[in-house]
Amino acid sequence: MREHAASGVTRRRLMGGAAAGTLALLGSPLAARAQNVGLGARAPFPLIRSGVPAAVIIDSEADTAVGHVATRFAEDIGRVCGTAARVSKGYRSAPSAVAVIIGVLGQSRLIDGLVDAGKIDVSDLAGVWEAFRRIVVDHPAKGIERALVIVGSDRRGAVFGTYDVSEQIGVSPWHWFADVPVTRRRDVSISATPVRDQPKVRYRGFFINDEAPCLSSWAEKTFGGFNAAMYAHVFELLLRLKGNYLWPAMWAPRAFAADDPQNMILADEMGVVMGNSHHEPMLRAQDEWHRNPEGGVTGGRWDYTTNADNLREFWRGGIARMMSKGNGGRYESVVTIGMRGDGDEAMAEGTAIPLLEQIVTDQRAIIAQVTGQRADKTPQVWALYKEVQDYYDHGMQVPDDVILLFADDNWGQIRRLPDPTAKPRSGGYGVYYHFDYVGVPRNYKWLNTNQIEKVWQQMDLAWQRDARAMWIVNVGDIKPMEYLLSFFLTMAWNPEAMTPQALAAYPARWAAATFGPEQAEAIAAMMTAYSQYAARRKPELIDQDSFPLGDVTPRALDGGVFGALVGEWDALERRMLATRARLRPEQHDAYDQLLA
Hints:
20 strands; about 35% helix; eight-stranded parallel β-sheet; globular; alpha/beta
């Protein structure tokens, strides 16, 4: 990681070049998943002509998430052609005869007007979760000759449909976090072939964990802490990767909603569903218990047998905060239920299943009381992590509407999946997976030591066994898990599209989308070789007895298994440096962060 990236001073350099052809659907990993619905050949839509961008039009009363993505999309166009698009509210102020119209079906006068006029058919979006359709329309309104219309079935559908175009025109989801540069073009067109897409896994996201000292130091230095200014970039990254769900950083002394009240407000405005980690129930960060008067500061223990009144009042505050949006609204959330020991430790030995079932019953009663609705109207998840799975295995039950979140063993092997013979649950099942871990018997958190092939094998198995309601992965500091996180959320969007052939092609497609096609194959081969070498033994687990040495000579480290492994790493480093030398200088920052 370059210091400028670690400090947040990202240099968004634009690659020069006179390339000015038509961009149809680029072969990026995300765009390739879209389901194209052909209606015959039509001229592509001119998003940028001779350096002049199309206008971006939204409703004057557009949802805040639509407003945010429209602004980011206009900036993305500016990254490509040098001039940001103008965002207009309504047709009258549109400055161009070509426009991109973004809206939500049933909530947008612009979109509903096109439907009523018979100019678009989006009937297959009604009531669908996070779906979008992209259509080119001639003469959508007076003064507009052609429009690229992005219709969301809901607000996140509109967001995902818009960021899908951003990626097609060459703006990487990692343009900010990894300084991936954007190729300058004066002419960019989008295929007029209609596109419809939607996710297969309902909640898709990541968990920022074990974030000290790297991410925490950077956040303090750059933003003054884990506040809305910092989380704005995290939320944007999540949405650009077509994720929708976040467990925020939680190592003490961090508490997402308490540290900066704007955190949850901004998440909701941008369209992000918030939760808390597997051991932080009822939308309360664990650190809040130790800083609030109703918690441990006054001597109360995190123990339901002796301090139930305090705990219930503490949890009530989390649900009340979710309902504090005003006008009868709520901040969109998935509520973690259940209970572990204080500080992500196991409950006291001998904890009885009836007690834990009573805890869940009481938590759901709080949810119903505070929201004024049945508890099953609020999405909830019970994480079967570590010893909590033992309770489930021994017969503990939770209501059918609760998502059962199975977990891996912290090292990439999912411990349990739904019984194929079990009756379906209305809440469904999910998986909590790890790319990073702090705990017994050893930590691993400084380097990426995971393979996408292993991730695919485990998550494909989860998909086949009906764990489809939630996929969330522990990514530690986010960096250096960029490649893995891209793969995880790509697969979560459509697990069925990630076939063995697509898996084999993914490294080269990711490299081409990130660094261009010229060095894609070389970079892909290095990414795969690195993950194979690193997965042999995580660095934190290596000691003097890990690999046999050669003869006991002054050059012993050059022989035996250990010497052979060192030779492979040396050869990989030479390949990495040789490829770097063939890249343009403006690509070096991203290359150093993602590969070097």
